[in-house]
């Protein structure tokens, strides 16, 4: 991981955070800025929260050790696991939130893009790889997707956040059929792909845009989703800016699927190599 690249953003965060706590920046102005860093001022504006990105929800022993170290060093008494499988720390004073950000990057934990209109943490079933009756272990794919989405954060600004998830069994614990982009494992060792779904106000079931894609091809579908969102997402109204609104904006699920397929063809024809290495567990499943 290029720590120098991610650290280049931190001085501005420290500067703006100081301005906010000095009273020279409003909370709304600070919120629109700080989301990029995975941090917001809490209600009342007396402390910050911070999200530690855990790719595919995987809390390794090293990431857990870092989190415990921060809890002790900064006397943090409140934290929780978010619905997107990050670790969220609460009640942080300005000096603490800035220090934790920098030390997190040194520990291989990225906070950039944890809020605001950016790709969020990729979700994965917590027992993937050991779950009874799973189709195959999707963790390697979810982690590869998380790494790729980090590369898109400094690129063009999206209309709103983008949530990607993977499921490993018919239980669909991560609700991938209701994600902005969801990869549902099949018994054949492939993925069915769902796009432009979402819960909340005006929920939409994701549009099935592909059947039985090979795991090594997932990044092509992620880039196609990104391009589709950039092209057809609503930049004018934040209320209608989530991907699920593109279904109606384009005339319904079928026409949305056509628009997505056009962007997918563009990605596939570009010559860019986005293939990932399939895991041994997937290949073993295919041989059965």
TrEMBL record:
Pfam families assigned: NIR_SIR, NIR_SIR_ferr
Coiled-coil portions: none
Classification via SUPFAM superfamilies: Nitrite and sulphite reductase 4Fe-4S domain-like, Nitrite/Sulfite reductase N-terminal domain-like
One annotated GO molecular function: metal ion binding
Keyword Oxidoreductase: yes
Keywords associated with the record: 4Fe-4S, Heme, Iron, Iron-sulfur, Metal-binding, Oxidoreductase
Key word Nucleus present: no
Domain annotation Nitrite/sulphite reductase 4Fe-4S: ranges: 116-265
Annotated ranges, domain Nitrite/Sulfite reductase ferredoxin-like: 40-104
Domain of life: Bacteria
Protein's name according to its UniProt entry: Nitrite/sulphite reductase 4Fe-4S domain-containing protein
